Amino acid sequence: MENSNNSYSHILKYTSLFGGVQMLNILIGLVRNKLVAVLLGPAGMGLVALFSSTIKLVVDSTNFGLHISAVRNISMAFDNGDEKWLRHEIEVFRHWILITALFGLVVCAALSSLLSDWTFSFGDHTLHFVLLSPVVALTTLTVGETAILKATRRLKALAVTSIYGAIGVFAISVPIYWIYNYKGIVPSLVLMALVQAIIVLQCSLRLYPLQMRFRLDCIKEGMAFLRLGIAFVVAGMLGSGAELAIRAYLSNASDVDTVGLYNAMYVMIFTYAGMVFTAIDTDYYPRLSAIKTHGGKLNDTVNNQIEVSMNIVSPLIVLFILFMPILLPLLYSGKFNAVIPMLQVAALSMYGRGVFLPLEYIALSRGNSMTFLTIEIFSDVVLASLVILGFNMFGLLGIGIAITTAYMLEMLFARMVCRIKYKYRMSSTVVRTILFHLAVGICVYASTHIESNLLYCIVGTLIFCADAWFSLNVVKKHTAIMEKLKGKFKKFVG
């Protein structure tokens, strides 16, 4: 019980930490985007988005997902306590990160003419992509060194580098756009990547100094990373393909405005509402990777993660649904109000996502690339099919219903696969927690149909208080957080 409570406290602490860091990064990003939009206008913002998305595609296609696959080996070495083994795994990983960084740079430069033709329907941007090729290498290095910090549980360092990186990007991009306008786009992207790389490298190299001498045996040993890494890249490409198919269908079946509304919904749900899940990739995946056996400890780790995620995310979802009529115009404009009903029902998908993600990471942590790909393919096919069907039947509201339905089905499928493959058993406590919060989510969504504003506020407040009370009681049961807060408050008052 004590070990379980310690695990719960750890998960709660770092889920809250990285959720908070992500929120701060989003706030900095919102201010930055607002200033950049004023300085560059829609056309300039479009150029930045096109360059950034194309560079991201090159990075994702040339790093072979090593930042995911290597975490498992480094985590196992770290948990084993063998410093020599750990240093060796990091050295092998850095060999491959350097190779993929150089490979990405060369690919971007070599394909610059093709990238220009594929990305832009006007002008020749070949030189721009040649100049942006260092961004690919710098981003790959940054992601790689960040993976080392994740695998070795340097969580506070990760939080600090994330905040400094966001501030650095803000401090560089805004002045450059202010002085040079469009001409500053390419230089700013290069400098932003350089600053982020310097911040992360300074931290990781201080903790794990570079001891790399180019060795052929390290390259051969690192080949083991590729299978799972490539599976992760393929899964990412399938996910991008599913999203592209959805957007293409909406554009053809309706118009570009519908695509814009769908994009707004996607950002609100999967970026803003989903920020609490940042800790799953940062903290949970390395811890899970270090567990060698199935059953017992694996089940406890997964169940604790699901329970904490649900107890944190549910009150946030309730507030998200209740305040959506205020949040959306604030973050976008009144022109996007048509998407509010879709957003409110799509927010319920976060309950399914809170269970699905911890289950999906089991396959990654075991190094089972085909199992992971099977879950991803099922998810992509179900999501794309249901969104198209939902839009045909109920329009924008149907998209929201489809997204929530898709995640519930994905959750059930992932649970079935993990039960068969890894002997995973969901505890009765977790089942009760999921059912309670899901019932709360359905109730708060039902309250959005109340026409009286006063009654809407009263009912919404009561639902939120009930959900928050449940979550708080669970937290009090498993942790001493309330006693710590009381102690700090007494010190402050005293």
UniProtKB/TrEMBL annotation:
Entry keyword set: Cell membrane, Membrane, Transmembrane, Transmembrane helix
Pfam families for the chain: Polysacc_synt_3
Keyword Nucleotide-binding annotated: no
UniProt key word Secreted: no
Main localization of the protein described in the UniProt heading: membrane
GO CC terms of this entry: plasma membrane
The protein's name: Membrane protein
PANTHER family given in the database record: O-ANTIGEN TRANSPORTER-RELATED, PST FAMILY PREDICTED COLANIC ACID TRANSPORTER
Localization (cell): Cell membrane
Spans traversing the lipid bilayer: 12-31, 37-59, 96-115, 127-148, 155-179, 185-205, 225-249, 261-280, 312-332, 397-418, 430-447, 453-475
Membrane topology: Multi-pass membrane protein
